[in-house]
Amino acid sequence: MDVLADILAVTRLAGDVFWHTHAVPPWGLRFDPAPVVWFHIVAAGSCQLVPARGRALALGGNDLVLLPHGAGHVLCDDPASPVISLDEFRAFLATRRALSARKRPPAGDATELVCGNYSLASARTHPVLRLLPAIIRIPGREVVDRTALWWTLQLLLRELADRDVGSQTAVSRLLDVLFVQVLRHWLDTAEGKRTGWLGALRDEPIGRALVLLHGSPEVDWTVASLARAVGLSRPVFARRFAAKVGATPLGYLRDVRLDRAARLLAESDEPLAAVAAAVGYSSEFAFNRAFQRAHGVPPGRFRRTRRS
After folding, report:
1. In Å, how far from its chain's centre is CA 144?
2. What percent of the chain clears pLDDT 70, i.e. is strictly above it?
3. Which segments within the chain are labelled E, that is strand?
4. Deepest in the core among 137, 167, 232, 281, taking most CB within 10 A?
5. What pLDDT, on the 0 to 100 scale, is given for residue 126?
6. Which CATH number fits domain 203-307: 3.90.1150.10, 3.30.70.360, 3.30.70.580, 1.10.10.60?
């Protein structure tokens, strides 16, 4: 089982490009905090990313930036430049297509940008994704060095520029591929190896434990039974799992069950008792209580809200 694929299916990340544009100085765009994963690609030129806290990041050609927690930030040519909000800029583009990449690019110091986000099916982010840092930046030279990532970006830029038949579908699929490649790159960096939640998938016993938890969340797993299944002693497994994943085995199992339940409620007409049993709860009452604690609403109301 591909655990990462299961995680992405549960979170239902859906990529969307706001615009592919050429920005001419002075310019500044404000992105307010939101339950999304922001991303920016500097196809040409340079700019700065100014987070709500911390120092500004200078971005150059082919740089790629991901903000996994939807943190507020400003993208600009210079921190002193005037700033408008995302909504204001969208309204401008709706009435004035002068900045569209399909027009002739302006001469001079224009910065070619691709900006967008990955929206989440639920405001409750998967516990694994929460372990990512606030900002993931891949410098342009590293993008070029990673052939698959480089060509994915080139294909994305071509689809955005050409707008040929099926471009919307092609862009959506390329954004899915791009997200996985960014995560792989982060895993291979020093930071990813140090904190790396994805590193848990490459750690043989912990990776097998994750496969078991995602593949069979309905099983009445205990720390001891998981440890036996992966060939480790109970205390060694518990410490290693917590160090790699950032959660206890049973805490992680609870989150997997409730995220899977949310997906079943949104996508099926199964009775609540059947959903509870499918994710490992023998008591519908216990399931209702755990689900409300995690999602803020009872499962029945959650389903009705999603359907409406």
Report:
1. 22
2. 85
3. 14-23, 28-31, 36-44, 47-51, 57-59, 64-67, 73-76, 84-85, 111-119, 136-138
4. 281
5. 61
6. 1.10.10.60
Residue 100 is classified by DSSP as: B
Provide the pLDDT for residue 275. 94
Torsion, CA 33, CA 81, CA 27, CA 30, rounded to 10: 10
User: How far is it, in rounded angstroms, from Cα 128 to Cα 23?
Assistant: 35
Residue ranges covered by each domain of the chain? 12-194, 203-307
Contact criterion met (CB below 8 Å) for 209 and 230: yes
User: What's the CATH class of domain 12-194?
Assistant: mainly beta
Which pair of tokens denotes residue 184? 């792989």
Residues near 224 by beta carbon (within 8 Å), at least 6 away in sequence: 234
Q: What is the pLDDT of residues 26-67, one digit of tens each?
A: 999 999 998 889 999 999 999 999 998 888 999 999 999 999
* pLDDT (tens digit per residue) in 123-162: 555 656 666 788 999 999 999 998 899 999 999 999 998 8
Structure confidence at residue 102 (pLDDT): 43
Cβ atoms 79, 25 nearer than 8 A: no
How far, in Å, CA of 178 to CA of 165, rounded?
21
Q: What is the pTM of this model?
A: 0.72
Q: Give the separation between CA 23 and CA 91, rounded to whole angstroms.
A: 16
